[in-house]
TrEMBL record:
It comes from marine sediment metagenome. The lineage of its organism: unclassified sequences, metagenomes, ecological metagenomes. InterPro entries: ArsR-like_HTH, AsnC-type_HTH_dom, Dimeric_a/b-barrel, Tscrpt_reg_AsnC-like, Tscrpt_reg_AsnC/Lrp_C, Tscrpt_reg_HTH_AsnC-type_CS, WH-like_DNA-bd_sf, WH_DNA-bd_sf. This is HTH asnC-type domain-containing protein. GO terms for cellular component: cytosol. One of its GO terms (biological process) is response to amino acid.
Length: 167
């Protein structure tokens, strides 16, 4: 970090900046948005002590660079009817991992699909409203071509579930 940035003076991001670069000011903006994504550029600017235009331009640039992917409400899944959460570890025939992952990711109940290391190739998290829909999903996975083995665990109690990274 430059001495200028350490003093709180922030330089504009330019087209030459690395696409994945997020500086201290961006992090302050992201932290504020993580707490409340409904805050206006003006409110964020007042909170962190920079101009509204600076905040607006930084948010626009981070959106264009794919740092900010969107704005979504945080939901209480049980209050929206999604009372079953499952974790599934999956072994897949090596050359078909991407195909299987894409098919699984296209399922509306699946909220996360990960490539993982270890004895399994894929991990997924899914949420269901009924035991019937959960059962149908598990049976459909077992019929999926190129899936060799699965281990399914049902979540009994959620201790923490927050998609936001604490900045």
């Amino acid at each position: 970090m430059s001495s200028k940035q350490e003093r709180g003076d922030y330089e504009k991001l330019t087209e030459d900046d690395d696409l994945n670069f997020v500086d201290a000011l961006d992090m302050k903006i992201l932290s504020t948005l993580s707490e409340d994504a409904r805050k206006s550029s003006r409110e964020i600017a007042e909170t962190i002590g920079v101009s509204t235009g600076t905040v607006y331009n930084r948010i626009k640039k981070m959106t264009e660079k794919g740092v900010i992917l969107g704005y979504i409400p945080l939901l209480d899944n049980t209050k929206t009817g999604y009372v079953f959460t499952i974790l599934i570890l999956i072994q897949v025939d090596g050359e078909y991992i991407t195909d299987v992952e894409e098919r699984l990711a296209a399922t509306k109940e699946v909220i996360a699909v990960y490539d993982i290391t270890g004895d399994f190739d894929v991990a997924l998290i899914a949420k269901f409203k009924t035991q019937t829909s959960l059962n149908a999903f598990i049976k459909s996975i077992l019929k999926t071509l190129h899936i060799r083995r699965t281990v399914t665990s049902m979540v009994l109690n959620v201790i923490k579930e927050d998609p936001r990274i604490q900045i």
